[in-house]
């Protein structure tokens, strides 16, 4: 009896009632339901608090066992523990199986059982284990019969759960082998479709990470390394759940980021005057995606140039990213702010204009998301709004950089060095 629960604890917190991800999930459920109906079953979809739904299911059915996938996020761990207790009280088994990752957090640890805190040795151990694991990868579909669906059973619609359909288009759950084979050459150029766009499918479990990792192992280890980063962050969140809101490096917990809410809002609107940062923010809010290189530059700009609290940026990304995943988002933000596990040190401060020259040399990416190609490479600090407007760009007057890079750099060094661990 396959079921899916739209968890009201999660949905109630979503600010946008036309959230792209909820539309994506609803569409995926319709596909799953079709799959089950062709095999004599049907998907039952519920809306509410999972523990309440399970209480009802237990009272209406005889349930020998509950199966679900392991989920390593702090909220999910609490939720699953509660349901496991409910099941145990009724002599039912609760079986959580690994699906989201190749190796669950506790499977790749140091010899003494403690967690890795640095990526390279973690990834070495991960690959060692993966090489031994390869022969046993096999796809097995569940066997047995489905419980027949009641004749009037229908899927809950978006309207039933208080949401609207978002017209966004989503990438297909398809592995492009030639893209993966060339990934190391194309991955850093945001103007190209040079990354796989599979983040959303990995996040929601609509593509098999085992199959993908196997192909990556054969085609391109650079791509495999990204999948390992994903598991590294899952592992960090599992062993250090406090990092959801505290720096991994405890010494930095003392930092009080002085950046203002109004500067943060300028960043959110993509009006910083640094074209690469602004283009990224427009790509994010308009599509739910932002290229990884640009995520790094935008996050670094917010935390290091504007000295805004990394948690503000993390929450903004959480709201908009289609592939939002707590572990990778927190990990990515702490990496950029220089306060995380194996993070970019605080004194390595991206120069957004230099990053643009290097990774978007033709200006195609910034032109696509900011409007005109002549927005290239920022404008000098002393450009007046009138001069800027005279250049005829759609983005003026905000294109005047909101802060001078050299000034911001010095300020950042001073700020962070005060608490250097
Ligand atoms: C500030 C910041 C926030 C981020 N937030 C998220 C997030 O919420 N969810 C998320 O999945 N990724 C996040 N990332 C990592 C990365 O940017 C995205 O995974 C990637 O851009 C997704 O695009 P893609 O599917 O085309 O990735 P590809 O480049 O094709 O990579 C393949 C897959 O590997 C994984 N991956 C790639 N890079 C990373 C990385 N640095 N860390 C962890 N996993 C990685 C993803 O699952 C990705 O789909 C963040 C990075 C930064 C700097």
Small-molecule binders here are:
flavin-adenine dinucleotide
Strand order of the largest sheet: 1-2
Q: According to CATH, what is the topology of the largest domain? A: DNA Cyclobutane Dipyrimidine Photolyase, subunit A, domain 3
Low-confidence stretches: 372-383, 392-398
Would you tell me the overall average pLDDT? 91
Q: Largest sheet, if any?
A: 2 strands, parallel
Helix content: 40-55%
Name of the top-level CATH class of the largest domain:
Mainly Alpha
Task: Report the principal-axis shape.
Answer: globular
What would you note in describing this structure?
- This protein is mainly alpha-helical and 421 residues long.
- It has three domains: 3-99, HUPs (Rossmann fold), CATH 3.40.50.620; 100-140 and 174-239, Serine Threonine Protein Phosphatase 5, Tetratricopeptide repeat (Alpha Horseshoe); 250-417, DNA Cyclobutane Dipyrimidine Photolyase, subunit A, domain 3.
- The chain is built from 18 helices and four strands.
- The protein has helices at 8-11, 20-37, 50-60, 74-89, 119-133, 177-186, 199-204, 209-219, 221-239, 261-269, 275-287, 292-305, 310-320, 326-337, 352-359, 364-370, 385-390, 405-417; strands at 3-7, 44-48, 65-69, 93-97.
- The strands form two sheets. A two-stranded parallel sheet has the order 1-2. A two-stranded parallel ribbon has the order 3-4.
- The longest helix has 19 residues, at 221-239.
- The site of flavin-adenine dinucleotide (FAD) has 27 residues, from helix 7, helix 9, helix 12 and helix 14.
- Flavin-adenine dinucleotide (FAD) is lined by residues 187, 195-199, 202-203, 226-227, 229-230, 233, 292, 295-296, 299, 317, 321, 323-325, 328-329, 332-333, 336.
């Amino acid at each position: 009896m396959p079921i899916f629960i739209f968890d009201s604890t999660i949905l109630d917190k979503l600010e946008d009632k036309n959230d792209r991800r909820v539309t994506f999930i609803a569409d995926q459920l319709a596909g799953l339901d079709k799959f089950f109906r062709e095999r004599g079953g049907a998907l039952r979809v519920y809306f509410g608090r999972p523990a309440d739904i399970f209480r009802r299911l237990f009272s209406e059915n005889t349930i020998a066992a509950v199966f679900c996938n392991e989920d390593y996020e702090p909220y999910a761990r609490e939720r699953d523990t509660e349901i496991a207790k409910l099941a145990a009280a009724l002599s039912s088994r609760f079986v959580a199986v690994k699906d989201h990752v190749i190796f669950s957090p506790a499977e790749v640890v140091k010899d003494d059982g403690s967690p890795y805190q640095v990526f390279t040795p973690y990834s070495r151990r991960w690959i060692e284990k993966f090489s031994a694991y390869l022969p046993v990868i096999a796809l097995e579909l569940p066997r047995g019969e489905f419980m027949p669906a009641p004749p009037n059973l229908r899927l809950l619609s978006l309207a039933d759960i208080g949401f609207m359909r978002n017209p966004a288009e989503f990438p297909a759950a398809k592995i492009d082998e030639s893209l993966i084979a060339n990934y190391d050459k194309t991955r850093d150029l945001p103007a190209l479709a040079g990354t796989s766009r599979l983040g959303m499918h990995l996040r929601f479990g609509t593509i098999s990470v085992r199959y993908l990792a196997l192909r990556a192992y054969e085609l391109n280890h650079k791509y495999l390394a990204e999948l390992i980063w994903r598991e590294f962050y899952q592992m960090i969140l599992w062993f250090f759940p406090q990092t959801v809101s505290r720096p991994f490096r405890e010494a930095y917990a003392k930092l009080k980021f002085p950046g203002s809410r109004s500067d943060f809002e300028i960043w959110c609107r993509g009006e910083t005057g640094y074209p690469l940062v602004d283009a990224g923010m427009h790509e994010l809010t308009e599509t739910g995606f932002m290229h990884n290189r640009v995520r790094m530059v935008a996050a670094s700009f917010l935390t290091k140039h504007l000295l805004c609290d990394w948690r503000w940026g993390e929450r903004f990304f959480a709201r908009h990213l289609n592939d939002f995943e707590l572990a990778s988002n927190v990990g990515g933000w702490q990496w950029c702010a220089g306060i995380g596990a194996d993070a970019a040190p605080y004194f390595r401060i991206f120069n957004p204009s230099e990053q643009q020259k290097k990774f978007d040399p033709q200006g195609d990416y910034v032109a696509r998301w900011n409007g005109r190609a002549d927005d290239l490479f920022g404008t000098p600090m002393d450009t007046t709004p009138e001069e800027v407007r005279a250049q005829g760009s759609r983005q003026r007057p905000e294109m005047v950089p909101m802060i001078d890079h050299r000034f911001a750099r010095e300020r950042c060094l001073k700020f962070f060095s005060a608490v250097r661990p």
